[in-house]
Amino acid sequence: MALSLHSALVPSMLQILGSLDKMLEKAQAWCDDHEHAHSELIEARLIDDMLPFAYQVKSCWAHSALAIHGVREGMFSPETSPPPNSFGGLQDKVREAAATLGAVTEDELEALTTKPVQFRIGDKFSMDFTGQDFLLSFSQPNFYFHAATAYDILRMKGVPVGKRDYLGALRTTV
To answer: For every one of its 174 residues, what pLDDT tens digit does the chain have, with 9 covering 90 and above?
Structure first.
């Protein structure tokens, strides 16, 4: 039996969104317990030319929930509003993404596999995809990149998260 697009995308993204939600809780508690300003983590970067933690979390929302909307609409452009500047606002984005993915049915996603999707940055740049290729070769890798970068920033700053925190709730048979 072939793996459906839904099976290849949605459960794993939901797993990482769940872990990101829990890591945000740990990050806020760490700040509060150690008397650090929340902005110390929310604005933290791995290196000066990289975007901050809040952007990484927002990008997980963009490359999951907004990617689904983009495939439905046939067009996806980078979301340029500023990221939330609070742990609660970041958790809202993560939870919105999880709710959006949780509402996508296998039949709906399968119907979108061959739908044309254009990635566009204004009038400067565009790339054409099918729905499946956009989700699997563009959004999914971006989603994991930003989730891993958010995790890395927390580790770098001293938040006690580890690989199990990143992996979240595994789908085991027991």
So the answer is: 688 999 999 999 999 999 999 999 999 999 999 999 999 999 999 999 999 999 999 999 999 999 999 999 999 998 899 999 999 999 999 999 999 999 999 999 999 999 999 999 988 999 999 999 999 999 999 999 999 999 999 999 999 999 999 999 999 887
Asked if residues 16 and 149 have their Cβ atoms less than 8 Å apart, the reply is no
What pTM, to 2 d.p., does this model score?
0.95
Q: How far, in Å, CA of 21 to CA of 95, rounded?
A: 7
CATH architecture of 5-167: Up-down Bundle (1.20)
Instruction: Give CA–CA dist 170/111, Å, rounded.
Output: 28
Residue 6: closest CA among 152, 132, 139, 172: 132
Question: How far apart are alpha carbons 88 and 16 in whole angstroms?
Answer: 18
Largest CA distance in the chain: 53
Domain segments of the chain as ranges: 5-167
